[in-house]
Amino acid sequence: MLKLISEKIRTEASDYSIETLTELSVHFRAVKTTEKDNTVINCTYFWSSWGSLNYGGRQVFSEEKILVLVRLRPLGEKEIARNEVSDWECINETTILFRNSLQERSMFPTAHTFDRVFRGDCSTRQVYEEGAREIALSVVSGINSSIFAYGQTSSGKTYTMIGITEYTVADIYDYIQRHEERAFVLKFSAMEIYNEAVRDLLSADSTPLRLLDDPGGTIVEKLTEETLRDWGHLKGLLSICEAQRQIGETSLNETSSRSHQILRLTIESSAREFLGKDNSTTLAASVNFVDLAGSERASQALSVGTRLKEGCHINRSLLTLGTVIRKLSKGRHGHVNYRDSKLTRILQPCLGGNARTAIICTLSPARSHVEQSRNTLLFASCAKEVTTNAQVNVVMSDKALVKHLQKELARLESELRTPAPSSTCDYAALLRKKDLQIEKLEKEVRELT
Ligand SMILES: Nc1ncnc2c1ncn2[C@@H]1O[C@H](COP(=O)(O)OP(=O)(O)OP(=O)(O)O)[C@@H](O)[C@H]1O
Q1: Dmax over Cα atoms in the chain, in whole Å?
Q2: What spatial distance separates the first Cα and last Cα of the chain, rounded to whole Å?
Q3: Ligand 1 center to residue 420 CA distance, Å?
Q4: Which CATH class is domain 63-394?
Q5: DSSP β-bridge partners for residue 387
Q6: Which end of the chain is more exposed for a tag (fewer CB within 10 A), N or C?
Q7: pTM, 2 dp
């Protein structure tokens, strides 16, 4: 029976309202705990069917690999003036080639394959539309998402992330306009991690913020969260962040970002038809835009004094990020050291957790940066083996939860009255188990009421 229902939903997801899907997914979850038939499928599938109907593209299953994109930037004016040569070539949409490997008899493979590679003449809009868009926009369907930029200093991380953030926000507002049947609430927060201290980019107070453990992930204590009025409001906040972010001059980039920046947009939405009613549910998810500080070695940036201290901290965070990614790329066995840096603690859900993630690895084509470019591609190769497990985040109102638990109680009681015939079943044990379940549910209903 369950198999039949799941097949029906698989093919007809478009005909169901969000509330119906919520009801069904909650029901499936409840059934899953007692059902032996492993054909029961995860509710995430229904949600993603709904999401993909709106935005097309890849089907989302609960488990998927991190999407890895590589963006090569063109040679800069100064590099051209120095007669730098470009050593990298994107030979098709997925492969990037190191052209000079024959001459230097390199041990490294010459061709590297990723989900998508972008040549130096590709625009940020192209990187967004053909790469990051689908993942970023999962947030409107209640699925957490994250877009990272990783690469050495001056490779184009900030240049790329400014565009990606703007295009995503424009599409989100466009989506909201086209879905008047839902009420949306957008919240924005922004932080930077500078020398291993977390700072609120929306506050004039630069006191470092504490990280607190929470079952749902790490919380940044006292981080400002602005409820957005409109797009203009968000644009204003983005320019505040840009002005607040630690910028320093290194020998490679005159406006080098010295910190890791995390911009977070949280979207909550509920169907207007059900607002304030017993069965109202809310979809809630966040999209993170992460612009990491340069991944180069401190020595390469010819750092001294403050810049050297920054380099050490930046590298400590990135080193942990690299270690976490390497560990996760080999499967989720054993301990993963997320807690070794603030960056990995905050980003834990995006790294193998409840989120869809895309990493844009930015590369400088210059021969003088070849070692760093190879390190970036090594990181990218590990990242593409990492799997995340995104779920739709449905928040039920207290009333809806009570109603659901009462229904579940009634179902269990009716099961008790008419147990399924089975020759091998131990009725006494089954009864004890059901009694315990009923007791537990009754307690939950009492507490919630
Ligand atoms: N794809 C691109 N096309 C044209 N110019 C680019 C591109 N990517 C980067 N640039 C230019 O290269 C310079 C360095 O870029 P950007 O500041 O984004 O680097 P970054 O990786 O963020 O560096 P850092 O880690 O030091 O902050 C900037 O002047 C930027 O305008």
Answers
A1: 85
A2: 33
A3: 66
A4: alpha beta
A5: 65
A6: N
A7: 0.76
